[in-house]
Structure formats: C-alpha cells, structure tokens
Amino acid sequence: MGGNPDFFYREAQRLGYVARSAFKLIQMQKQYKIISPGGSVLDLGCAPGAWLQVACQNLGPLEKGGAVVGIDTTKVKVPPQHCDSRVKTVCGDVMKLPREQVRALSPKQKGFSVILSDMCPLVSGITSRDAALSVELGMRALDLSVGTAAAVNNAPQEADSDSSGAALDTGRLLKPGGHLIIKLLESEDIKEFNQTCKPLFRKASWLRPKATRSCSREIYLICQGLL
C-alpha cells in the first residue's frame, strides 16, 4: 500500500507536512542518516517547505542547537508544524547568489554539514531540454557545496583557520565529512555527474524514493562524507 502516491498525500495531511515530498527525505534520513542532531542544513529549492520540516525534526531538541536555512525563488513561509526557531528561509535565485552571501547564512558563517538540493527546472515536456536544465541546477548545487572546478582538479584552495586551528575551506559551503543530496532528472548526462561526485565523497549512491510519482523521472544522488 505504501507505494501509492495517494497514500503519501493522505499521510502528509495526517501528519502535518506541507507536501508529500516530506516522505522522500524521511526515507533518505532512515537509510543514510544524513542529518545529525545539532547539524546545519541548507535546503536549496525549499518550496513549499516539507524538507524544512523533516530537517528540523532531525536536529534533535532545541538545546542541541543547529540550523536549517531554506532558499527558493519564491517566498516560502516557515511551516508552523514540525519547525522551530532554528528554521529560516531566504528568497533568492540560487543560480545567482554569491557563495559568500550563502555562507553568511550558516551558523558562525562556517558552512553547512548538510546541503539538500530539491531544485527542479520548470518542466517544458522536452525531455532532453528538461534533463539538461536539471543537470545545470545540480552542478550549481555541487559547485556551491564543494567549489567544483577546484575540487575536481584537486587544486589547493584558500583556507582560513577557525579557533581550533583547523583549516576551513573558503571555496566550499559543505564542511568536511558533510553530506550532499541532489535531485536530477534521469538522462545520459547524470552518469557523468556521478563520476564527478565519486572522487569527492566517501560514497555516492542513487535513490528513487518510494514517494516519487510513477510518472516522474526524478532520481536523487546521495553523496556522503565530503573528503
């Protein structure tokens, strides 16, 4: 019964989630333990807010600290259920926002332990075009997270030191050991995408969550443990 899209829609209403997509992140969290108590989460393409809810639920009690920051081109109101004062949203275009402006939204401006990209292009129905736009959004999420060009070439990057003396990579928004989830539309191009991510993370896996509609071509790349 659990695979029926109507089931997830009804469950979302029953449990107070603003969209059925909440169950996609719930499944990822159960399988991969992406979000840890007190973590800092960046949610790219956060509308309508269901992933904000799930992320906040996994931060643990308020005294654990942590933060969830959502960015979307539309103004997103923080859902009253399952969210607390640790959740905030920003209206902006991820494709244009400077990296440092996004970093400034993170706790102590030190980056995020988890970056989620549920961004999706405005689907035109032209399969190849939609897939290409999806890859473009995915590459932007990867670039913000790891500073792709430098990371792919394994070039040394600028580093700051925090109070513990550890090097902080200023070209990256994702902290060392951090996790990245990127939504893509299935196409030939995504194999190449996977090859780009594999050397940067401890593990990269594909997942098509149970709550995905049967007609959808979306698939998620789960990148664990930034090296």
TrEMBL record:
Keyword S-adenosyl-L-methionine: yes
Domain Ribosomal RNA methyltransferase FtsJ: start-end pairs: 17-225
Active site per UniProt: K183 (proton acceptor)
SUPFAM superfamilies registered for this protein in UniProt: S-adenosyl-L-methionine-dependent methyltransferases
Keywords: Methyltransferase, rRNA processing, S-adenosyl-L-methionine, Transferase
Molecular-function GO term, any one: methyltransferase activity
Biological processes per GO annotation: methylation; rRNA processing
Record-stated family: Belongs to the class I-like SAM-binding methyltransferase superfamily. RNA methyltransferase RlmE family.
Listed HAMAP family: RNA_methyltr_E
Name of the protein: rRNA methyltransferase 2, mitochondrial
Upper classification of the organism: Eukaryota, Viridiplantae, Streptophyta, Embryophyta, Tracheophyta
